[in-house]
Each structure stands twice: as C-alpha cells, then as structure tokens.
Amino acid sequence: MGEVPHSWLFPRMAAVVHHAGAGTTAAGLRAGVPAVAVPVLADQPFWARRLHDLGVAPRPIPMPALTADALAAALRQVTANPHFAARAQALSARIAEEDGAASLLEWIG
Known about the structure:
The protein is mostly helical. It has one domain (6-108): Glycogen Phosphorylase B (Rossmann fold, 3-Layer(aba) Sandwich), CATH 3.40.50.2000. The protein has six helices and two strands. It has helices spanning 6-9, 22-31, 44-53, 68-80, 82-97, 100-108, and strands at 16-18, 35-37. It has a two-stranded parallel sheet. Helix 2 links the parallel strand 1 and strand 2 (35-37). Helix 2 crosses helix 5. It is globular. 28% of the residues are buried. The mean pLDDT is 95.
C-alpha cells in the first residue's frame, strides 16, 4: 500500500492506535478521532497521558504491558463509549478554529 497520510486515514477510523508521538497525537486530535495510546519512549508517555486526561483515550498501555487482550479491551472501551468520540470531535473543532501562526507572530511582534 505504501505511505498513507494521517490526514486522509484518521478521519475514516473509529479509533486510532498509535505510539503517542507529538505529530501522530496532533494528527489524531485534528481528525477528531479517539485514540488508544501505546507509548514506547521519549515524550510519548507524556502525550499518552495527555490524551487520557483530555478524555479522548482510555488509560495508555505502555509497550511492555501490550497484549492482545489489553489492546482489545482498550479498543472496545474507546469505541463503545460515545464520550471518547464526542470529546475528540469537540477538541478537533477547537483546534480547527485556532490560528497558531497568528498567535505566535503576535507574541513575537
């Protein structure tokens, strides 16, 4: 299949399982899709916790704790509870309204 852009793929998903890197986390939030975070290293545990705190993901599953059963349970939780999708869509709408470059230019200005 080759590479597929997050911006095309994520909006078509019921939930996204990812490592919770900053870029993938942002792409998921922009798409308005709930997540299942499986952090591996560096800043990923921070972003995974942030997704959970924002209400768009169940508790993260650290890579050493990842099992088929744990992943299946998290996917059931995130897709069966409409709260996760509603929060993700609300955050996506807020993000779409932001003009981050303008805010930065104003701050630098």
